Amino acid sequence: MAEDEQRARRRDTSLPASAFSRGAKLAALPVGFAGRTAIGVGRRIGGAPADAVLTEVQRRTAEQIFSVLGQLKGGAMKFGQAMSIFEAALPDEIAGPYRETLTRLQDAAPPMPPDVVHRALATQLGEQWRELLVEIDDEPAAAASIGQVHRGRWHDGREVAIKVQYPGAAKALRSDLRQLARLSRLFGVLAPGLDVKPLIAELQDRVAEELDYELEADSQRAFHDAYADDPEVSVPAVVHSSPQVLITEWMDSDGSLAGIIKDGAQADRDHYGALYARFLLEGPGRVGLLHADPHPGNFRVLADGRMGVVDFGAVARLPDGLPPAIGPLLRTAIEGDAEAVSQGLRDEGFLREGTSIEPEVLSAYLGPFFEPAVVEEFGFNREWLRSQMQRLSSPGVEGMATSLRINLPPEYLLIHRVWLGGVGVLSQLEATAPFRSILQDTVPGFAGD
């Protein structure tokens, strides 16, 4: 009987690898949406206000979507985490009812049973793995899209974090992202104007890197070495790595930025918001790498006021730093030279040959991307981000009409996503930060030097 219960638990909590079983859950999403839409039409015919009907459909759709994504883990949950960054862009009456569901995707997932974890450790570290890892807490300390973390003790006495990849993660990740690409229109209901197709495509392109923990270990070593003596940022040292297990020094923390977003004091919002923005922007110049997974769960609040950073599975390799045109283009935009901005974007490939956009129109469209740097200190907040998203998705010349004519060069894809994601988190934090001086310190060419 005990063996039957153990087998049942393993089936319930390990990562489903079957493309059919996972696909069936994802395929049910548009069916549910269609049903809710039909009910919504009926309510409108019955006299309910259109806005109220739309809000109800969005709320119920979001509840189902993020419930399914969280259950599946893999690519589904990774996409959910990426989407959760943009929660601040949603109208508050829509975002409020399921904000907790979105946030939960940033820090948690159903755990693997201990016997599955132990088998993975034996496979990756060898049958004598307990001689290396003398203690392990079978209750996971954290769980995410393709792996979970346990606390333990290395044979030399160090407290360590043991990151173990879910069995079947590779197959599930690829299957989920293919299915999600086919359902991309559905997600537009949550945030009209947010095109999720490029986000899914970029996640698909980086699958192999995300699954290779030895590659992640190399990236984390580079960040650890660069920040070894930093007074504001801490990156745990790598202790051991294999393709599907990564062991690093344990980092004690008082939670993550997700906790500050939920109920943090304004002083903490401002302090960690500034550290967060600076870290994302200075990585390419300081390390030659851009941390490309900006969701709040990866950024830890340390007792001494520093910010801890974890999870280096997604990075952009920029050995020469950020593209050199970024700083001068931002400075030119702030100075109001619309003609120079238009020419600079054309030189960088943002405007294809033959594409014509009035410089003033283009400058107005780009406003949200440089507005935080116009003043010495900028207060990020949900209302500001929502207004910008609504404007960019409007049908006018400062919205979709211009957006459809702008090209995003491949070398800027990941930088663009991290930039948008970072602004989304800063808006969730509602942080006031000296964004202009941070850009001056971290982005070459912005200060005019």
- Which descriptor suits the 3D outline? globular
The main sheet comes to:
6 strands, antiparallel
Residue fraction in strands: 5-15%
Assembly status? single chain
Helix percentage range:
55-70%
Total number of domains: 3
Helix/strand/pairing category = alpha+beta
Number of strands: 13
Radius of gyration: 23 Å
Mean model confidence by pLDDT: 78
**Terminal Cα separation, in Å?**
73 Å
Number of H/I helices: 22
Contiguous low-pLDDT stretches (5 residues minimum) are 5-20, 29-55
Key words describing this protein structure:
6-stranded antiparallel sheet; 13 strands; 3-stranded mixed sheet; Phosphorylase Kinase, domain 1; 449 residues; alpha+beta
Describe the structure concisely.
The protein has 22 helices and 13 strands. The chain has 449 residues and is of the alpha+beta class. It has three domains: 2-109, no CATH class; 114-167 and 208-249, Phosphorylase Kinase, domain 1 (2-Layer Sandwich), CATH 3.30.200; 326-442, no CATH class.
What does this structure look like?
- This protein has 449 residues and is of the alpha+beta class.
- The chain has 3 domains: 2-109, no CATH class; 114-167 and 208-249, Phosphorylase Kinase, domain 1 (2-Layer Sandwich), CATH 3.30.200; 326-442, no CATH class.
- It has 22 helices and 13 strands.
- The strands form 4 sheets. Strands 1, 2, 3, 4, 6 and 7 form a 6-stranded antiparallel sheet that branches.
- Strand 9 (299-301) and strand 10 form a beta hairpin.
- Helix 14 packs parallel to helix 22.
- The longest helix has 27 residues, at 19-45.
- It is globular and about 65 Å long.
- The model is unreliable at 5-20 and 29-55 (pLDDT under 50).
